[in-house]
Amino acid sequence: MNKRRTALLVSALCLTLPASANTSDFHFSGFASLVGGTVLDGDGYWARLPEGAGQYDGGLELQTESRLGLQARYKATQELSVTGQVMFRGINDFEPKMEWLYATYYATPDLSINVGRMRLPVYHYSDYMDVGIAYPWLRVPSDAYSLAVTNYHGVALRYGWDWDIGTTTFKLYAGQQNTDPNDLITTIEQYKTEQLYNQSGQFTGVRGIRTTKDYEDMKGIVIDTQIDWFNLRLSFLDGKEKFTFYAEGDYPSTPLFGGTWADTRFVDVSVSMDYNGVFAIAEWNDYDTIYTSWFTSLAYTTGKWTPYIFYSEFEGTLRFIAPGGITAGFEDGVTGSLDDAYNSIGIGVRYNINPRTAIKAEITDFNDDGDAAVFIDEDRDGRTDATAFAVSLDIAF
Amino acid sequence: MKTLLVMMACLLCASPAFAGYVVIVNAGNGAEVSMSDVKKIYLGKKGAFSNGENAIPITLSEGDAVRGQFNDGVLNKNEGQYVAYWSKMVFTGNGVPPREVATMQEVKDLVAKNPSTIGFIDESLVDGSVKVVGSF
């Protein structure tokens, strides 16, 4: 039903395109990334974001990270507009999904309020991590972007303050979101504890578990300050969440565990500079009692080329013990739980074919230091190191 | 109309001494506008002039040499960085890029008519209907 509605909306969007591509009250734009990757070493590489995309286990895989976004903005009056964005993601077999739909009201030129379905602005790149043309990397370094909720329904107040030497944007937001299934957590759990092997010990797939996550009472603030070439962004989110795990075949009647509300606290800080072609950034975040992650990167633009390097790291805090224990045999001897710890080093280059089209290539070296498997684990030792290579074509229109 | 265009083109080519470009607002716009304000307005960081009035930036089409010079010199961004920047702003719902028109004459006409607008043109096009706030 929902799907049909989205399809209708997309057709409507496309139909209006040639007639009124960009009149003063209707603005249409879009972006696309075609991403192909392969594994150079290891059993497989999983980029994980967003929605669990980027699974590479052999051959040249072109689907899971590829995506197309179409956005329409209708300006009803000088103060009021409505924005809709439809995403076609390879990870969802390119079925259209309403990514955002919100109304914006400008109380003053620098004070606006958004109401509807929007991106949860926790990270520096949250809002535009799908828009490959807007950043140097092939993908935003994903070890540091693991929050399992990307959009929310609610309100956001945005105020831009010009204090002469610099500008600061304040964003206050509140809302909620249910994710059922939660694709990212479900896939993480599947590779962590639910890998299946045949009699000769070869990986054959994962068990069909299901996890859900509800987020409520989310309240957040973002303070984003720009002083010429320097940027400091602070983000804080507070709320509550409920995680539920269902064994294969038990959904929705019999959860195996979870189902209780817990506090959510998420802090993110990023510092970046963009000066004379040199771009440097460090971003760190802490998901209270769950994990800490961060990344840093350096990119240098000379003419049409932007070579870059990054380092990213994830370290889980929570060691959750599933009832019935863990079957795979690589659990921690003391607590019986698995720890998640991994990092990546990426080296890549972006080449601008024209201002709206770029190609990128990246080698990512993924090091799994924890005893939980992150992706396919053929030898069942919990270590899933991998080296992957990917190329992309990114456009904006 | 065509003659006018040709005349304008001749004027532009024949006057290298006037190859300066200026940032203009409506003649009736009493706000103080510094080049730092111009940068903020064109990057969507500031939605109003210092007097609180709406600020609507006008630019030239993609690929235009004067636009390139403005983006480089005033905004400190090459065309690629400019597109990347505005992609980010548009797809996050944080702003709408400056409206694009084809010629500097159109920029001047718009700014002369609408007190909220701000634009950049060749110095030789300046007349009493607009006010120069800076040059590049």
UniProtKB/TrEMBL annotation, chain A:
<protein>
    <recommendedName>
        <fullName>Porin domain-containing protein</fullName>
    </recommendedName>
</protein>
<feature type="signal peptide">
    <location>
        <begin position="1"/>
        <end position="21"/>
    </location>
</feature>
<dbReference type="InterPro" id="IPR023614">
    <property type="entry name" value="Porin_dom_sf"/>
</dbReference>
<keyword id="KW-0732">Signal</keyword>
UniProtKB/TrEMBL annotation, chain B:
<feature type="signal peptide">
    <location>
        <begin position="1"/>
        <end position="19"/>
    </location>
</feature>
<protein>
    <submittedName>
        <fullName>Phosphate ABC transporter substrate-binding protein</fullName>
    </submittedName>
</protein>
<keyword id="KW-0732">Signal</keyword>
